[in-house]
Write a structure and sequence with these properties.
326 residues; alpha/beta; five-stranded parallel β-sheet; elongated; binds NADPH dihydro-nicotinamide-adenine-dinucleotide phosphate
Length: 326
């Protein structure tokens, strides 16, 4: 027997900094938000050790701890935080329909999408092992580069992100070895030129990762192979950075929302609005450029404010005067 359909004023999908910030603002604006956490409660930050660049934490904070605090703050204002994964949506009619865990159907006045993006990894067992241990594998140089100050690191990738991250790392680390799988960069000429002209970046073309090496706890090096000659060699390194792109978690919105060629949701510039009225986007699901916790939180705030204004305009009975923005 199917469950009764639930009606929700503001549904937030995703539990990273964007989702929780949207929840804090929506709850304080009397929108009774319901937030579904998804398959990775806390989002990408739960895979980061130390966060030192989020304002307000002078001593730094671990990613999981910060996400627990954000959840607590959202719940303090009575956000209904639920376990569950949104598996399907239908934004074709006046009512925005959402299904959780394939079965539960919800009808929403507003939807805030904060589903984030996932960094792509190579998928090697050794890479995943040290990623899970927090022992030297990272997909974010801006987040984790500082921990490799004055050390030698390896970075994989040849796009704009890899170039930007390699250059960032070169200012902290003694040496950065960049593994490029073809004989050329994908990055724009100017970005590629910047890494080519940086003294402590060594570029190895036609080179792929065979194995991330370590002592069982932390990374100690990388074994690579040349895909033309099949020669293998080891590079000593304490950090292994993967910058081979991100995949926005937006598959379920295909066919309803305007997405760019990589799948990022296209928002109306300067707002959180999507092409569907009442559906808003925040965080990395629409951002392939900045991808920071603090920018995600900022756009979460924007989405809640846009949703509140949308409801106020649509329904005169929604009392915007009781809401609190500060
Ligand atoms: P891209 O998809 O542009 O590049 C991914 C890179 O990773 C490619 O060089 C690709 O190699 C390589 N790669 C993919 N899979 C593997 C693998 N298994 N092993 C080794 N290498 C692999 O992603 P980016 O994140 O760099 O950029 C995404 C978008 O964001 C782009 O449009 C980019 O221009 C933009 N961007 C702009 C910035 C800026 O302007 N400041 C900064 C960062 C991103 P191959 O080339 O062989 O396919």
């Amino acid at each position: 027997m199917s469950e009764e359909i639930e009606r929700i004023k503001c549904l937030i999908i995703g539990s990273g900094p964007a989702g929780y910030t949207a929840a804090i603002y929506a709850a304080r604006a009397n929108m009774s938000p319901v937030l579904y956490q998804g398959t990775q409660p806390g989002g990408q930050l739960t895979t980061t050790n130390e966060v030192e660049n989020f304002p307000g934490y002078p001593e730094g904070v671990t990613g999981p701890e910060m996400m627990m605090e954000l959840q607590k703050q959202a719940e303090r204002f009575e956000t209904d935080v639920r376990n569950g994964w949104v598996t399907k949506v239908d934004f074709s009619g006046d009512t925005h329909k959402v299904w959780v865990n394939e079965t539960k159907e919800i009808h929403c006045d507003t939807v805030i999408i904060s589903t984030g993006a996932s960094a792509k990894y190579l998928g090697l067992d050794s890479e995943q092992k040290y990623l899970k241990l927090g022992g030297g594998v990272s997909a974010c140089a801006v987040c984790d580069g500082f921990f490799y100050k004055n050390q030698e690191v390896v970075i994989v990738g040849a796009g704009d992100s890899a170039c930007e991250e390699a250059h960032y790392l070169s200012k902290l680390c003694t040496k950065v070895t960049m593994l490029v799988r073809r004989d050329e960069f994908r990055a724009s000429k100017i970005m590629a030129a910047r890494v080519k002209n940086t003294e402590n970046i060594e570029i190895l073309y036609n080179t792929e990762t065979d194995e991330v090496l370590g002592d069982g706890q932390v990374v100690t090096g990388v074994r690579v192979f040349n895909n033309k000659t099949n020669e293998r060699h080891e590079i000593p390194a304490t950090g292994f950075f993967v910058a081979i792109g991100h995949k926005p978690n937006t598959d379920i919105f295909k066919g309803f929302l305007d997405l760019d060629e990589t799948g990022y949701i296209i928002n109306v510039p300067g707002t959180s609005k999507t092409n569907i009225e009442g559906v808003f986007v925040s965080g990395d699901a629409a951002d392939h450029v900045y991808r920071q916790a603090v920018t995600a939180a900022g756009t979460g705030c924007m989405a809640a404010l846009d949703a509140e204004r949308y409801l106020a305009a649509k329904d005169a009975t929604f009392d915007v005067s009781t809401s609190t923005y500060n």
